[in-house]
Design a protein that fits this description.
This protein is an alpha/beta fold. It folds into three domains: about 150 residues, Alpha-D-Glucose-1,6-Bisphosphate, Chain A, domain 3; about 200 residues, 3-Layer(aba) Sandwich (Alpha-D-Glucose-1,6-Bisphosphate, Chain A, domain 3), CATH 3.40.120; about 80 residues, 2-Layer Sandwich (TATA-Binding Protein), CATH 3.30.310. Helix content is about 40%, strand content about 20%. It contains 15 helices and 18 strands.
Protein backbone atom coordinates (compact mmCIF):
# COMPACT_ATOMS: atom_id res chain seq x y z
CA UNK A 1 0.00 0.00 0.00
CA UNK A 2 1.23 3.51 -0.81
CA UNK A 3 2.57 5.28 2.25
CA UNK A 4 1.33 8.87 2.35
CA UNK A 5 1.97 10.01 5.91
CA UNK A 6 5.48 10.66 7.18
CA UNK A 7 6.57 11.71 10.66
CA UNK A 8 4.71 15.02 10.30
CA UNK A 9 1.79 14.41 7.99
CA UNK A 10 1.77 14.30 4.20
CA UNK A 11 4.46 16.35 2.51
CA UNK A 12 5.42 16.95 -1.14
CA UNK A 13 5.91 19.36 -4.02
CA UNK A 14 2.71 21.32 -4.45
CA UNK A 15 0.46 20.32 -7.35
CA UNK A 16 2.75 17.47 -8.40
CA UNK A 17 3.40 15.16 -5.46
CA UNK A 18 0.61 16.85 -3.47
CA UNK A 19 -2.14 18.04 -5.78
CA UNK A 20 -5.86 18.73 -5.68
CA UNK A 21 -6.87 15.14 -6.42
CA UNK A 22 -4.91 13.82 -3.43
CA UNK A 23 -6.19 16.63 -1.19
CA UNK A 24 -9.80 15.80 -2.13
CA UNK A 25 -9.14 12.12 -1.43
CA UNK A 26 -7.53 12.87 1.95
CA UNK A 27 -10.45 15.13 2.86
CA UNK A 28 -12.99 12.46 1.96
CA UNK A 29 -11.13 9.62 3.68
CA UNK A 30 -10.51 11.66 6.84
CA UNK A 31 -14.14 12.77 7.13
CA UNK A 32 -15.50 9.30 6.38
CA UNK A 33 -13.15 7.62 8.89
CA UNK A 34 -14.29 10.10 11.55
CA UNK A 35 -17.97 9.60 10.71
CA UNK A 36 -17.58 5.85 11.25
CA UNK A 37 -15.92 6.57 14.59
CA UNK A 38 -18.79 8.95 15.48
CA UNK A 39 -21.34 6.31 14.47
CA UNK A 40 -22.71 8.40 11.62
CA UNK A 41 -23.11 11.68 13.52
CA UNK A 42 -22.35 14.91 11.66
CA UNK A 43 -18.61 15.56 11.64
CA UNK A 44 -17.12 19.02 12.15
CA UNK A 45 -13.59 19.66 10.79
CA UNK A 46 -11.47 22.82 11.02
CA UNK A 47 -8.98 23.81 8.32
CA UNK A 48 -6.05 26.19 8.84
CA UNK A 49 -3.25 27.07 6.44
CA UNK A 50 0.08 28.87 6.10
CA UNK A 51 1.05 31.58 3.60
CA UNK A 52 2.25 29.44 0.66
CA UNK A 53 0.84 30.27 -2.75
CA UNK A 54 -0.52 26.72 -3.02
CA UNK A 55 -2.31 26.74 0.33
CA UNK A 56 -5.51 28.38 -0.99
CA UNK A 57 -5.74 25.79 -3.76
CA UNK A 58 -5.27 22.85 -1.38
CA UNK A 59 -7.68 24.39 1.13
CA UNK A 60 -10.41 24.47 -1.52
CA UNK A 61 -9.71 20.87 -2.52
CA UNK A 62 -9.68 19.60 1.08
CA UNK A 63 -12.87 21.45 1.92
CA UNK A 64 -14.57 20.02 -1.18
CA UNK A 65 -13.49 16.50 -0.27
CA UNK A 66 -14.63 16.79 3.34
CA UNK A 67 -18.00 18.32 2.54
CA UNK A 68 -18.66 15.85 -0.30
CA UNK A 69 -19.04 13.03 2.25
CA UNK A 70 -21.37 15.06 4.44
CA UNK A 71 -19.02 16.66 6.99
CA UNK A 72 -19.06 20.37 7.82
CA UNK A 73 -15.95 22.47 7.24
CA UNK A 74 -14.90 25.56 9.18
CA UNK A 75 -12.14 27.62 7.55
CA UNK A 76 -9.80 29.37 9.99
CA UNK A 77 -7.71 31.18 7.37
CA UNK A 78 -3.96 31.73 7.69
CA UNK A 79 -3.12 30.64 11.20
CA UNK A 80 -0.31 28.75 12.99
CA UNK A 81 -0.45 24.96 13.27
CA UNK A 82 -0.70 25.02 17.10
CA UNK A 83 -3.65 27.39 16.83
CA UNK A 84 -5.59 24.71 14.98
CA UNK A 85 -4.70 22.15 17.66
CA UNK A 86 -6.02 24.50 20.36
CA UNK A 87 -9.14 25.60 18.49
CA UNK A 88 -10.29 22.01 17.85
CA UNK A 89 -10.93 21.65 21.57
CA UNK A 90 -12.08 25.24 22.02
CA UNK A 91 -14.78 24.87 19.33
CA UNK A 92 -15.60 21.23 20.07
CA UNK A 93 -14.62 20.04 16.60
CA UNK A 94 -14.01 16.41 15.65
CA UNK A 95 -10.71 17.12 13.90
CA UNK A 96 -8.51 19.79 12.40
CA UNK A 97 -6.41 19.86 9.25
CA UNK A 98 -3.42 22.12 8.68
CA UNK A 99 -2.15 22.89 5.19
CA UNK A 100 1.56 23.57 5.62
CA UNK A 101 4.99 22.18 4.86
CA UNK A 102 6.37 23.73 8.05
CA UNK A 103 10.03 24.78 7.58
CA UNK A 104 10.25 23.61 3.93
CA UNK A 105 10.54 26.06 1.00
CA UNK A 106 7.50 27.55 -0.73
CA UNK A 107 7.37 24.96 -3.51
CA UNK A 108 6.43 22.29 -0.97
CA UNK A 109 3.20 21.90 0.93
CA UNK A 110 1.70 19.42 3.34
CA UNK A 111 -1.34 18.16 5.20
CA UNK A 112 -1.37 17.48 8.95
CA UNK A 113 -4.41 16.04 10.69
CA UNK A 114 -5.26 16.45 14.38
CA UNK A 115 -7.90 14.50 16.30
CA UNK A 116 -10.59 15.88 18.60
CA UNK A 117 -8.05 16.21 21.43
CA UNK A 118 -5.78 18.45 19.36
CA UNK A 119 -3.22 15.65 18.99
CA UNK A 120 -1.77 14.49 15.67
CA UNK A 121 -3.36 11.31 14.39
CA UNK A 122 -1.81 8.05 15.51
CA UNK A 123 -0.03 5.83 12.98
CA UNK A 124 -3.03 3.46 13.08
CA UNK A 125 -5.46 6.27 12.28
CA UNK A 126 -3.26 7.48 9.43
CA UNK A 127 -3.17 3.92 8.10
CA UNK A 128 -6.99 3.81 8.02
CA UNK A 129 -7.04 6.98 5.91
CA UNK A 130 -4.37 5.62 3.57
CA UNK A 131 -6.31 2.36 3.23
CA UNK A 132 -9.51 4.21 2.33
CA UNK A 133 -7.69 6.14 -0.38
CA UNK A 134 -5.89 3.06 -1.71
CA UNK A 135 -9.06 0.94 -1.90
CA UNK A 136 -10.95 3.63 -3.75
CA UNK A 137 -14.25 2.65 -2.16
CA UNK A 138 -14.63 6.09 -0.59
CA UNK A 139 -16.45 7.08 -3.79
CA UNK A 140 -19.36 4.95 -2.55
CA UNK A 141 -19.91 7.27 0.40
CA UNK A 142 -20.17 10.59 -1.44
CA UNK A 143 -23.35 12.42 -0.48
CA UNK A 144 -25.78 14.02 -2.89
CA UNK A 145 -28.12 16.96 -2.99
CA UNK A 146 -28.97 18.28 0.48
CA UNK A 147 -26.79 15.77 2.34
CA UNK A 148 -23.46 17.42 1.52
CA UNK A 149 -21.67 19.31 4.27
CA UNK A 150 -21.46 23.07 4.67
CA UNK A 151 -18.32 25.20 4.33
CA UNK A 152 -18.14 28.21 6.65
CA UNK A 153 -15.48 30.76 7.56
CA UNK A 154 -14.70 31.54 11.20
CA UNK A 155 -13.55 35.14 11.40
CA UNK A 156 -12.71 35.13 15.12
CA UNK A 157 -10.26 32.18 15.11
CA UNK A 158 -7.11 34.28 15.44
CA UNK A 159 -8.73 36.39 18.17
CA UNK A 160 -9.47 33.28 20.22
CA UNK A 161 -5.95 31.92 19.77
CA UNK A 162 -4.26 35.22 20.68
CA UNK A 163 -6.42 35.52 23.78
CA UNK A 164 -5.51 31.96 24.77
CA UNK A 165 -1.75 32.57 24.46
CA UNK A 166 -1.78 35.83 26.38
CA UNK A 167 -3.89 34.23 29.11
CA UNK A 168 -1.28 31.44 29.45
CA UNK A 169 1.48 34.00 29.99
CA UNK A 170 -0.21 37.01 31.65
CA UNK A 171 2.70 39.42 32.07
CA UNK A 172 4.11 42.58 30.52
CA UNK A 173 7.13 42.63 28.22
CA UNK A 174 7.60 46.35 28.77
CA UNK A 175 11.31 47.18 28.83
CA UNK A 176 12.49 44.26 26.68
CA UNK A 177 13.64 44.96 23.13
CA UNK A 178 13.00 42.03 20.78
CA UNK A 179 13.61 41.27 17.11
CA UNK A 180 10.97 38.82 15.85
CA UNK A 181 11.45 36.81 12.64
CA UNK A 182 8.09 35.50 11.40
CA UNK A 183 9.59 33.54 8.47
CA UNK A 184 6.99 35.20 6.20
CA UNK A 185 4.75 32.47 7.52
CA UNK A 186 1.61 31.77 9.49
CA UNK A 187 2.60 33.85 12.55
CA UNK A 188 3.07 37.08 10.60
CA UNK A 189 -0.12 38.64 12.00
CA UNK A 190 -0.81 36.84 15.28
CA UNK A 191 2.70 37.54 16.58
CA UNK A 192 2.25 41.29 16.13
CA UNK A 193 -1.03 41.19 18.01
CA UNK A 194 0.46 39.12 20.85
CA UNK A 195 3.53 41.28 21.38
CA UNK A 196 1.56 44.52 21.09
CA UNK A 197 -0.86 43.23 23.72
CA UNK A 198 2.08 42.51 26.04
CA UNK A 199 3.61 45.96 25.41
CA UNK A 200 6.89 44.69 23.96
CA UNK A 201 9.34 46.85 22.03
CA UNK A 202 9.55 44.80 18.83
CA UNK A 203 11.31 45.05 15.49
CA UNK A 204 9.67 42.65 13.02
CA UNK A 205 11.46 41.01 10.14
CA UNK A 206 10.15 38.57 7.50
CA UNK A 207 6.53 39.46 8.24
CA UNK A 208 5.40 40.38 4.70
CA UNK A 209 4.40 37.09 3.06
CA UNK A 210 3.81 37.05 -0.68
CA UNK A 211 3.14 33.33 -1.12
CA UNK A 212 6.66 32.63 -2.36
CA UNK A 213 8.97 33.94 0.37
CA UNK A 214 7.98 31.68 3.28
CA UNK A 215 11.16 30.41 5.02
CA UNK A 216 13.31 31.98 2.26
CA UNK A 217 16.62 32.67 4.03
CA UNK A 218 14.67 33.55 7.17
CA UNK A 219 12.95 31.81 10.06
CA UNK A 220 14.18 29.22 12.52
CA UNK A 221 16.21 27.33 9.90
CA UNK A 222 18.01 30.45 8.64
CA UNK A 223 19.10 32.60 11.57
CA UNK A 224 21.84 34.75 9.98
CA UNK A 225 19.63 37.77 9.25
CA UNK A 226 18.10 37.64 12.73
CA UNK A 227 21.58 37.52 14.28
CA UNK A 228 22.60 40.61 12.29
CA UNK A 229 19.45 42.52 13.25
CA UNK A 230 19.73 41.71 16.96
CA UNK A 231 23.25 43.14 17.05
CA UNK A 232 22.38 46.11 14.81
CA UNK A 233 19.33 47.07 16.90
CA UNK A 234 21.10 46.26 20.19
CA UNK A 235 18.14 44.13 21.13
CA UNK A 236 17.92 42.01 24.27
CA UNK A 237 16.95 38.90 22.30
CA UNK A 238 15.82 37.66 18.91
CA UNK A 239 12.98 35.21 18.30
CA UNK A 240 12.54 33.09 15.15
CA UNK A 241 9.54 31.00 14.07
CA UNK A 242 9.26 28.61 11.15
CA UNK A 243 6.61 28.71 8.41
CA UNK A 244 3.76 27.30 10.48
CA UNK A 245 5.04 28.61 13.83
CA UNK A 246 5.23 25.29 15.64
CA UNK A 247 8.96 25.87 16.17
CA UNK A 248 10.85 28.62 17.96
CA UNK A 249 14.57 29.31 18.23
CA UNK A 250 16.24 32.37 19.71
CA UNK A 251 19.34 34.53 19.45
CA UNK A 252 20.98 36.19 22.46
CA UNK A 253 22.09 39.83 22.68
CA UNK A 254 25.47 38.90 21.17
CA UNK A 255 23.91 37.25 18.12
CA UNK A 256 24.60 33.72 19.34
CA UNK A 257 22.03 30.99 18.69
CA UNK A 258 19.87 29.62 21.48
CA UNK A 259 18.69 26.33 20.00
CA UNK A 260 15.94 23.99 21.17
CA UNK A 261 18.22 22.09 23.55
CA UNK A 262 19.16 25.30 25.34
CA UNK A 263 15.57 26.56 25.47
CA UNK A 264 14.43 23.23 26.94
CA UNK A 265 17.27 23.46 29.47
CA UNK A 266 16.18 26.95 30.53
CA UNK A 267 12.56 25.81 30.87
CA UNK A 268 13.43 22.61 32.76
CA UNK A 269 15.51 24.43 35.36
CA UNK A 270 12.86 27.15 35.81
CA UNK A 271 9.96 24.68 36.12
CA UNK A 272 11.91 22.47 38.54
CA UNK A 273 12.61 25.45 40.78
CA UNK A 274 8.87 26.26 40.72
CA UNK A 275 7.91 22.64 41.47
CA UNK A 276 6.16 22.35 38.10
CA UNK A 277 8.48 19.94 36.26
CA UNK A 278 6.57 16.68 36.51
CA UNK A 279 8.78 13.89 37.91
CA UNK A 280 11.74 16.30 37.51
CA UNK A 281 12.00 14.89 33.98
CA UNK A 282 12.14 16.19 30.43
CA UNK A 283 11.43 14.30 27.18
CA UNK A 284 14.02 14.77 24.44
CA UNK A 285 15.06 13.01 21.21
CA UNK A 286 18.08 11.06 20.01
CA UNK A 287 19.38 14.31 18.44
CA UNK A 288 19.61 16.09 21.78
CA UNK A 289 23.18 17.17 22.49
CA UNK A 290 25.27 15.23 25.01
CA UNK A 291 26.10 18.55 26.67
CA UNK A 292 22.40 18.86 27.54
CA UNK A 293 22.57 15.46 29.26
CA UNK A 294 25.51 16.73 31.36
CA UNK A 295 23.49 19.84 32.23
CA UNK A 296 20.54 17.70 33.35
CA UNK A 297 22.76 15.63 35.63
CA UNK A 298 24.15 18.75 37.29
CA UNK A 299 20.65 20.10 37.91
CA UNK A 300 18.91 16.92 39.08
CA UNK A 301 16.81 16.60 35.93
CA UNK A 302 16.10 13.22 34.35
CA UNK A 303 16.24 13.13 30.51
CA UNK A 304 13.91 10.67 28.73
CA UNK A 305 14.84 9.96 25.09
CA UNK A 306 12.51 9.25 22.14
CA UNK A 307 12.76 8.99 18.36
CA UNK A 308 12.95 12.21 16.32
CA UNK A 309 9.60 13.89 15.78
CA UNK A 310 7.36 15.94 18.06
CA UNK A 311 4.63 13.29 17.81
CA UNK A 312 6.95 10.79 19.51
CA UNK A 313 7.90 13.35 22.12
CA UNK A 314 4.23 13.96 22.93
CA UNK A 315 3.44 10.24 23.01
CA UNK A 316 6.15 9.75 25.65
CA UNK A 317 4.97 12.80 27.58
CA UNK A 318 1.42 11.44 27.74
CA UNK A 319 2.60 7.93 28.58
CA UNK A 320 4.83 9.10 31.44
CA UNK A 321 2.81 12.15 32.50
CA UNK A 322 5.68 14.55 31.81
CA UNK A 323 5.12 18.30 31.48
CA UNK A 324 8.02 19.36 29.23
CA UNK A 325 9.55 17.94 26.09
CA UNK A 326 10.97 18.94 22.77
CA UNK A 327 13.55 18.84 20.03
CA UNK A 328 16.76 20.63 19.19
CA UNK A 329 14.97 22.09 16.14
CA UNK A 330 12.68 24.15 18.37
CA UNK A 331 9.57 21.96 18.60
CA UNK A 332 8.90 22.43 22.31
CA UNK A 333 5.81 21.11 24.06
CA UNK A 334 4.53 22.66 27.29
CA UNK A 335 1.89 20.00 27.96
CA UNK A 336 0.12 21.88 30.73
CA UNK A 337 -0.83 24.47 28.10
CA UNK A 338 -0.67 22.77 24.68
CA UNK A 339 -0.86 19.42 22.90
CA UNK A 340 1.74 20.24 20.26
CA UNK A 341 4.83 22.33 19.66
CA UNK A 342 3.85 26.01 19.76
CA UNK A 343 6.49 28.52 18.67
CA UNK A 344 4.72 31.58 20.05
CA UNK A 345 3.95 29.94 23.39
CA UNK A 346 7.61 28.91 23.60
CA UNK A 347 8.69 32.48 22.85
CA UNK A 348 6.43 33.89 25.56
CA UNK A 349 7.72 31.41 28.14
CA UNK A 350 11.33 32.25 27.26
CA UNK A 351 10.67 35.98 27.43
CA UNK A 352 8.87 35.65 30.76
CA UNK A 353 11.86 33.82 32.26
CA UNK A 354 14.24 36.39 30.77
CA UNK A 355 12.32 39.27 32.34
CA UNK A 356 11.81 37.60 35.73
CA UNK A 357 15.45 36.56 36.00
CA UNK A 358 16.88 40.01 35.33
CA UNK A 359 19.68 38.27 33.42
CA UNK A 360 20.89 38.76 29.87
CA UNK A 361 19.83 36.11 27.36
CA UNK A 362 23.43 34.89 27.11
CA UNK A 363 23.56 34.43 30.88
CA UNK A 364 20.49 32.20 30.85
CA UNK A 365 22.39 29.64 28.77
CA UNK A 366 25.92 30.11 30.12
CA UNK A 367 25.92 26.83 32.06
CA UNK A 368 24.77 24.70 29.10
CA UNK A 369 27.99 23.63 27.38
CA UNK A 370 27.26 21.74 24.17
CA UNK A 371 29.41 19.14 22.42
CA UNK A 372 30.31 19.88 18.78
CA UNK A 373 27.92 18.30 16.26
CA UNK A 374 28.32 17.79 12.52
CA UNK A 375 25.19 17.25 10.48
CA UNK A 376 25.14 16.19 6.83
CA UNK A 377 22.02 15.85 4.68
CA UNK A 378 22.17 13.50 1.70
CA UNK A 379 19.50 13.97 -1.01
CA UNK A 380 17.59 10.71 -1.39
CA UNK A 381 14.40 9.64 -3.14
CA UNK A 382 12.03 6.97 -1.79
CA UNK A 383 13.96 4.10 -3.42
CA UNK A 384 17.29 5.31 -2.03
CA UNK A 385 15.77 5.62 1.44
CA UNK A 386 14.67 1.98 1.24
CA UNK A 387 18.17 0.93 0.15
CA UNK A 388 19.69 2.83 3.06
CA UNK A 389 17.39 1.19 5.60
CA UNK A 390 17.95 -2.32 4.25
CA UNK A 391 21.70 -2.25 3.56
CA UNK A 392 23.59 -4.22 6.23
CA UNK A 393 26.96 -2.94 5.00
CA UNK A 394 25.96 0.67 5.64
CA UNK A 395 24.82 -0.10 9.17
CA UNK A 396 27.94 -2.15 9.90
CA UNK A 397 30.13 0.72 8.68
CA UNK A 398 28.25 3.23 10.84
CA UNK A 399 28.58 0.97 13.87
CA UNK A 400 32.30 0.62 13.25
CA UNK A 401 32.78 4.38 13.00
CA UNK A 402 30.78 4.97 16.16
CA UNK A 403 32.87 2.44 18.07
CA UNK A 404 35.99 4.30 16.92
CA UNK A 405 34.72 7.31 18.89
CA UNK A 406 34.71 5.18 22.06
CA UNK A 407 32.77 6.92 24.85
CA UNK A 408 33.50 10.43 23.60
CA UNK A 409 30.96 10.59 20.79
CA UNK A 410 28.08 9.01 18.91
CA UNK A 411 26.49 8.69 15.47
CA UNK A 412 22.80 9.09 14.56
CA UNK A 413 21.67 8.30 11.00
CA UNK A 414 18.11 8.15 9.70
CA UNK A 415 15.85 8.90 6.77
CA UNK A 416 13.86 12.12 7.04
CA UNK A 417 10.12 11.69 7.37
CA UNK A 418 9.41 15.16 5.98
CA UNK A 419 12.04 15.74 3.27
CA UNK A 420 13.79 13.70 0.53
CA UNK A 421 16.91 13.35 2.67
CA UNK A 422 19.06 10.91 4.63
CA UNK A 423 20.40 12.65 7.72
CA UNK A 424 23.73 11.99 9.44
CA UNK A 425 24.62 13.48 12.82
CA UNK A 426 27.99 12.86 14.47
CA UNK A 427 28.69 14.28 17.91
CA UNK A 428 31.82 14.30 20.02
CA UNK A 429 34.36 16.35 21.88
CA UNK A 430 36.72 16.93 18.95
CA UNK A 431 35.25 18.82 15.95
CA UNK A 432 37.93 17.70 13.49
CA UNK A 433 37.44 14.02 14.33
CA UNK A 434 33.66 14.05 14.08
CA UNK A 435 33.76 15.98 10.79
CA UNK A 436 36.01 13.31 9.29
CA UNK A 437 33.73 10.53 10.59
CA UNK A 438 30.62 12.22 9.18
CA UNK A 439 32.21 12.60 5.76
CA UNK A 440 33.33 8.95 5.71
CA UNK A 441 29.81 7.79 6.53
CA UNK A 442 28.38 10.11 3.87
CA UNK A 443 30.73 8.67 1.24
CA UNK A 444 29.84 5.09 2.21
CA UNK A 445 26.11 5.83 1.97
CA UNK A 446 26.49 7.47 -1.43
CA UNK A 447 28.50 4.50 -2.62
CA UNK A 448 25.82 2.01 -1.54
CA UNK A 449 22.59 3.78 -2.53
Amino acid sequence: MTKLFGTDGIRGLANTELGCELAIAVGRATAYTLSKKNEGEKVKILIGKDTRISSDMLESALAAGISSVGADVFLLGCIPTPAVAYLIKHYGADAGVVISASHNPAEYNGIKVFDSSGIKLSVDEEYKIEKQIENGDIENYIKSHTDVGQIKTLTNAEDDYVNFLTSCMPFSLDGIKIVVDCANGAAYNSSKRIFEKLKADVIYIANNPDGLNINKNVGSTHLDYLKEMVKKERADIGIAFDGDADRCLAVDENGEEIDGDKIIGIFAKYLKEKGKLHKDSVVITIYTNLGFIDYCKKNGIKPVRTAVGDRYVLEEMIKGNYSLGGEQSGHIILKDCSTTGDGQLTALMLLMILKQSGLKASELTSDIQKYPQVMINIPADAEQKIKFNSDDQIQAFINEKESDLFDSGRVVSRVSGTEPLIRIMVEGKDKTTIKAVAEEIRDKILERI
